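Lab notebook, bench 4. We co-purified these components, and the gel suggests they stay together. Before we commit to crystallization screens, I want a quick structural picture of the whole thing.
Request: model the full complex, all chains together.
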Amino acid sequence: MVLVALLLIFFYLLYVVQPIFESASVTKRTDIALKDNKTYFGMGMEEQTEIAYLLDDKGLVDFYQIKGQNSGDKLNTLAVDLDGQVTSFSQSAPFLGIYAYGLDNGQIQLVKPSFLISFPGNQRVMQPRLSYPLEGVQLEVDDQGQAIKQFAFSHYEDKTAVVAQTADKRVVFASFSAEENMFSGEIEWTVERSILPIEGRVDDMLISPDTTRVFVRSANQVYVFDTRFADEVKQFQLLAANEENANLVNMNLLAGANSLMLSNDNGEVSQWFEVNTDEGRQFAKIRSFESVKSAQVDIFSEFYRRTFFTTTNTGELGLYYTTSEAHLWQGKVVDGAIEKFAVSPRSNAALLLSDNTLNVVELHNEHPEVTWSALWQEVWYEGYPEPAYTWQSTSASDDFESKFSLVPISFGTIKAAMYAMLFAVPIALSAAIYTAYFMSPELRRVVKPTVEIMEALPTVILGFLAGLWLAPLIEEHLPAIVALLVLLPIAIIGTAFGWTKLPKQIRHLLPDGWHSVLLIPVVLIVGWLSFAISDSIEVWMFGGNVRQYLTNELGLTFDQRNSLVVGIAMGFAVIPTIFSIAEDAVFSVPKHLSNGSLALGATQWQTLVRVILLTASPGIFSAVMMGLGRAVGETMIVLMATGNTPIMDWSIFQGMRTLAANIAVEMPESEVGSSHYRILFLAAFVLFIFTFIFNTVAEFVRQQLREKYSSM
Amino acid sequence: MVRQWFKSGSPWIWMTGGAVSISLISVIGLLAMIAWKGLSFFWPTEVVEFELEGSVAKQTVIGEIYDREMVPKARLEAAGYDFSDYQDEYIERLLVKTGNREYVELDFRWILTTDIQSRTVPEDMAVFERSKNGNFYGYVVRVIEDGKVVTQQPVERLEFLVERAVELNEEALDLQNGDIGHINYELERLRLKERGYQLDNELTDKVKAELEAQRAQLREEYKVFEKRLFELRADAKRDYVVVRDMRGEEVTLPLYQVLDVWFPNNMGFFSKVGHYFSQTGKFISDDPREANTEGGVFPAIFGTVFMVMLMAVIVTPFGVIAAIYLHEYAAKNAVTKMIRIAVINLAGVPSIVYGVFGLGFFVYMLGGSIDQLFYPEAAPSPVFGTPGVIWSALTLAILTLPVVIVSTEEGLSRIPSSVRHGSLALGATKAETLWRIIVPMASPAIMTGLILAVARAAGEVAPLMLVGVVKMAPTLPLDGNFPYIHLDRKFMHLGFHIYDVGFQSPNVEAARPLVYATAFLLVTVIIALNITAIGIRNHLREKFRALEH
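Here is the predicted assembly.
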């Protein structure tokens, strides 16, 4: 029953976690021989991956059923409204789903295939349509009316921009903004045009969806333009971007449009993004991926994730994830060259056009961003100056890339547990030793349950006191804590020494084993004294403000909710656990051992150190292990007494974020089945294993000890 | 001599003794502090009137003294104040709760004692506890009853009128939550019924008409109640009181917003005690107000108790059976040893891991399946496939299982074997011995385990945050609507209430005493449960020790 519960937890956690380590797979769904033999410029599919559309060179869009029993049927052909002859074609970033035809009159027309969904008789019916993002208005890119040879565009929110090469080899950048005329209510277009200075031929053009960057590839060079201000377009950088002994063959932008992907004819694909350097933000090569060596390697990006695909003219398909540097899949999917490629919005299927055949493949690639190395090693994220351990799971923006490094939160867990143990172990063990060995039995009967009742105290209360009472107190009276640490041992030893000097009559008033009662007023007085002199110390040594002193003189940041607070509060929660088990271990050491030692002339202390502790040491070890297990998994105290910032710093004056607190904070808002959700389960699994090991070792040692005692 | 003394080791003995003292002081100090802070909150403090001038403009401040601290002069001077004519190194400052939240910027403010020109405890100072915007402090100028100024004994009349308004409000609330809530609940059930018929393709015109008739009837009833509700509300809005606040301005307070009024500066000791108990009573029996920072904690108490009882019902049979098996039947082999280690491990697994497991396994997997099978009409909104009280109880049942097992097993092992042998010798079978002799004798131990489990569950918060606790539950899991017990509902919990109010509330300063009071309540319950359990266990030990001889 219990075993079942434990195994159930173990395997269920594993069951949820396991998919993130599954590798990607690509399986063939169907091949569709296209009905007409014509040239297609672009293609795509709708979200359910039931219908694919292909845009041809005349401005016609063919819709094909690619799923179900009618798979392979041509559903419809629609014509795009075009006022001119088609001379070129381009498509937007995948998530926008817009395509555009460039015309011989210097204009372009934007079109978006869309689907009207209706439910007649509880049956879903999709009706293909063509919609026009600009209500059918053709954008006049070139005011000289030259034919557009090639171009790139973006139309996102209220921003529209086009970069195009005209028949007379000019490279035009045009930015469009629509404004409603106040009187007539008509939409008026204002255009800002500028000519981009490109030397040599133009191979590829790209524009970021937010229209702030334009990339133009000319042989092995990539021009980057800053187009944030349409009236002031300037060259941002010129990259010599090819690999050694290789030439560039293609380029594309990754989802989120921060990274530029470049492919070489030796099969290498490199990722570039902006990093802060001495000369401001500059594009730099971050990492590269090995693809199959081929004369033509094309790159395609996914809708939202940092996954990209490579296709070659030898029919090879490659699947990669940039940030985790994972080469997820590679294989030959068709015999001929892959001419066109498109991925579905949910990244669960892809279309390949090869030899007038439409190949549909299914993709299974749920969690490409999670790999063992991405979780535990430094990762270079977009926009970061260098590789780092980062935990940042969510953000307000859509194209945000989640950063899942378990290192900072595991570090936080260890840090919190360590400070707690630092506080708890000395006190708990000393108290246990005294209670078990020196204390008089009557007192012990009171003391033991009192300390043990602490274990029942809800941690939420300890956490609340730590966060709202202790943290401000420590902030106000930091010197008092230090003073307490120094003065308390001195005062105790002083009292002890003073006691030996007292006349015998007084000394004999206190029976043996009542020392701690005598010490209670001493501790109280020292505590009071420390706080009383705290302000004076602050004025005398630190110029009236310790926190300022720490920041200015020592360069330490001081958080109000810091490791010291957590150490004390969590130490407090752990003391009863350690105390209780260690006390039992010491107490159950057979009496004849200590009696023998004392009879041979050893002092009480010698007997304790040489005989009792040695015998009880496995028990004490298991007590510490149990305490550690508890400290590692504690949630509420850490949640309330730290700032929950995932930083990596041993400083006692800063906070941390632990695995347990992280789960408590983020679990309620993580989407079921997402990578985030599964990684949180992984965090829980790690905790489970951690404590499982601690507890099993501790329990095993305890059972051994019990057998040993019973044989004595 | 000192060296010899050190060599004897006796200073170290004293040091270990010191550790005990520290532990004791911190345990007792902690409990005493919670008790003091939690209990003193309800005591009516006097309201003080300060005349200020100095580092601030001349003004009057009225309020309760909340806290005081000494500030080094240097720090204040660094902040730009001038204290060159002041001698001491430290300056005392007071934190004053001024209330009147909608008229002043901050309802708490620090006052430097050097600024205080005069300090009085004026008689007839009234404190109004309001349902919105916190307390109001001021002098009663006049009481307006039904549009007319009350001339005779306005204060007594005011107290009567406040009581009347409170009663009317309560009646309106009862109506709203009781009868009107019931109608809304029935309407929702009808909607689900209709959807159910629709899914089964049984929604004929006849059924439709029937449902529509029921609906129409409910709407009729609703109209009656609504009319009554509006009447009550209008009636409650009848009276006003005009109060002069600390700015010297007269403010009109509608009495329907006033929950209570008292005059702390006029109170004698006994009326203060009376007030204290009535405030404590309200804290325990009222609903929270103002984003939980004011009012009572009744729903949290109810939720905690309900969930814990549900958990006890689930955990007891499993725990007891497991313990009996382990102690009476299991052979002493590797499997048993493994099970024992598993028990210890189960006790040591961090509670948040149980929460994660509960969320994934119970809520999403089990709850999701239940929804698919039994509540298809409610889709897409989940019934059991969302955190709720049943899942919380189940999760905590696994968490507390080891507590029950260990405690029961201990009880079983304390029963002298002579008793067992006697029963067997008289011809009873093993099962009979177990059922008639052993289990009844072990029942106090089972009780102990159960109490300890309940105490543990009542204090556990982390897993509940994932599987069912909410900041504010609109309805209790138990009410007058069929099927009366709603296991799928979310609930409030004392421990989570502490976390929520102390750390997530907009006005932490105002809420802090409330958090202490809640913490005290929780600690009292848990410590009391633990002491009871320990008491039972000790009693049991003595009893069986006597049996053995």
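Chain B has 15 helices and 13 strands. Worth comparing against the SEC data before the next meeting. The longest helix of chain B spans residues 154-199.
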